Amino acid sequence: MRRFLSLLLPLSLGLVLTATSCNPDDPGERPVDDAGTEDPGSDAGNDAGTETDAGTDAGTDAGTEEPGPPCTLANPQPSDCAYGSYCGASETCRTVPTPTCENFSKFPVSWDPATSTGPVIYAAELVSLTSNDSNCTSQIPTRFRIRIRAYSPSGDLPTTASELAKVFSYVNRNGSYLSDSGQFSDIVTSGDLKNTEFVVSNCIVDQPTVSLGFNFDSGNGYCQQASK
């Protein structure tokens, strides 16, 4: 199931973290107001192939629950933690946050750590936020780049942008989603295919705050809010 769309609406505080790139000319996508097409010469699709150390950085501790058992951050995620958790910077296990943002109210994700086995997104971090980016147009002048980190116990994570496009989506506030290979770059996947990190980027309209959603098929939904 794939639809291709990206509409980023403002919330209130500062501008946004991340998101996607889309191609309005692709017949498989629906029209959008605020998501632009990146220059083919940009960094999208610069697949880094496979590495053996991906997944050892937990990024920011996004979990909201009390810290769990101790874990070793130097180990690949989820380290010593159970499926659905990750090893945080304090070297304690933390449960990945529940996706409570509006993005998933119209894009329900059926994921239960007790029964699911899909990839787990455990961290997202801002790479850059550029106004008047040369790869964007005057209507959508701001470009966001955000790094996603995920693990999969089954060892089936993608290593290329085209593979990612088949299983990963950016979810907009209105529930529409985009799964286009042009939005991905800097892909680093471990040799056993159990850990990955990659950058998602897009051009959007100038706005103070945006709510972003991300999802792997059969995996958890992940909310991220970014502000200027």
What's this, in brief?
By secondary structure, the protein is mainly beta. Helices cover 3% and strands 28% of the residues.
Q: What do these coordinates show?
A:
By secondary structure, the protein is mainly beta. Helices cover 3% and strands 28% of the residues. It is built from one helix and ten strands; from the N terminus they run ββββαββββββ.
Give the secondary structure arrangement, pairings included.
Elements: E1 85-87, E2 93-95, E3 120-130, E4 142-151, H1 161-167, E5 168-171, E6 177-178, E7 184-189, E8 195-204, E9 209-216, E10 221-227
Antiparallel strand pairs: 1-2, 3-4, 4-8, 5-6, 5-9, 7-8, 9-10
Number of strands: 10
Apparent shape:
globular
Note the total helix count. Answer: 1
Q: Please estimate the helix content.
A: under 10%
Strand content: 25-35%
H-E string: EEEEHEEEEEE
Low-confidence stretches: 1-52, 58-64
Mean pLDDT: 77
Q: What class do helices, strands and sheet pairing give?
A: mainly beta
Features:
single chain, 228 residues, mainly beta, four-stranded antiparallel beta sheet, 1 helix, 10 strands, disordered N terminus
